Amino acid sequence: MAISNFKKKIAVFLSGRGSNLKNLYKFSKTKSSKFTIHLVISNKKDTKGILFSKSKKIKSYSIDKKMSEFERKSLFLISRENIDVICLAGFMRILSKTFVQKCKIPIINIHPSLLPKYKGLKTHARAIENKDVYSGCTVHHVTSKLDSGTIILQKKVKILKKDTATTLSKKVLKVEHQIYPIALNKIC
Ligand code: GRF
Fold it and tell me: What is the mean pLDDT of residues 95-113?
């Protein structure tokens, strides 16, 4: 099998602060990285994430439109830029079944819980409320069913008695930053 020397081109979709984007970008600059961040698309204008990507001269687009328009434009950009993998990183919209089917490349997501537990929102509060001993995060393939695709990588963190949803989210975010680049490298 031929071994490619080319790094895979990644598109990141986000809606907000973009700490996972920053972290993927930082990793992409290391020797071990099999990818480059080539394109960033936000569904909102002037998010911290998009300001960061612009500052790094990454091709950046804010598509603050209804979802069908967002998907139409994104698919066009993905194809025009020859993107290999889409990474969702704090992307707060649900991609349609049609988008997932039309997109012939892998789409992956980072979710702040130990899936299959706590799909959707408020994962930290739900884990604390249920007196779970562990929480964590999961990188998984995206399918048309919310937070249900094949798991690529997971990492646990211990929930302490004194943890609140806020302190737990900070601890989980740290491990998100550890595993997302590793999971992405794995599929590149
Ligand atoms: C992360 O907790 C991620 O797991 C979830 O949304 C948050 C995004 O954070 N999907 P950031 O925008 O990457 O800082």
Answer: 96
Tens digits of residue pLDDT in 166-176: 999 999 999 99
Q: Are 34 and 185 in contact (CB under 8 A)?
A: yes
Query: Could you say which of 3.40.50.170, 3.40.30.10, 2.40.50.1020, 3.30.230.10 is the CATH number of the domain covering 7-105?
Result: 3.40.50.170
Shortest-distance Cα residue to atom 12 of ligand 1 = 18
Q: What is the DSSP string of 49-112?
A: HHHHHHHTT-EEEE--S-HHHHHHHHHHHHHHTT-SEEEESS--SPPPHHHHHH--S-EEEEES
The two beta strands, 151-158 and 134-141, are: antiparallel
In the annotation, is 111 catalytic? yes
Q: Which atom of ligand 1 is nearest to the CA of 48?
A: 12
Residue identifier of the C-alpha nearest atom 1 of ligand 1: 90
pLDDT at 3 over 80: no
